[in-house]
Amino acid sequence: MHRVVCPGSFDPVTNGHLDIISRAAAMYDEVVVAVLINVTKQGLFTVDERVELLREVTSEYGNVKIDRFHGLLVDFCAANGITAVVKGLRAVSDFEYEMQMAQMNYRMAKIETLFMTTNPLYSFLSSSLIKEIARYGGDVSGLVPEPVVSQLRHRMTEE
Ligand code: PNS
Known about the structure:
The chain is α/β, with parallel strands linked by helices. It has helices spanning 15-27, 47-57, 73-79, 92-109, 127-135, 146-158; strands spanning 3-8, 30-36, 64-69, 84-89, 112-117.
């Protein structure tokens, strides 16, 4: 049984995340998408909302589970029988930080990190850019799943 984790903030989930999650789901027995609970950083969406959106947009994959975690990712892995992290790499700019975390996670707990090259259709995408574009009324359809488009619209009209 190969269970892997796709960790992240997912504020909100993008089509780039979804691409990596679905490709990981085709390769491994189970994929746990783990949303970081970060008490020091206020997101646009609450952790509950992010989890709910992730559940909705991954419902077609029988082997994808959504969870949340705080503290160290390696501790979450140990508690859930996970031996590897799957991450998307968009560009060289991602590499340095991702490499550092991957090596540290291996050093701490022998947790492997597997990098997938992002689909070029989504290599320029980030949750931060999505929020900025949505905030100023830009169109994010095609870049995030439909439920996220409508949640963003809803959120921006509330502000
Ligand atoms: O989507 P993000 O914010 O780029 O995801 C970063 C994340 C959640 C994968 C990373 O910050 C993380 O693993 N945080 C948990 C704390 C931890 O384990 N820190 C040590 C990393 S070596």
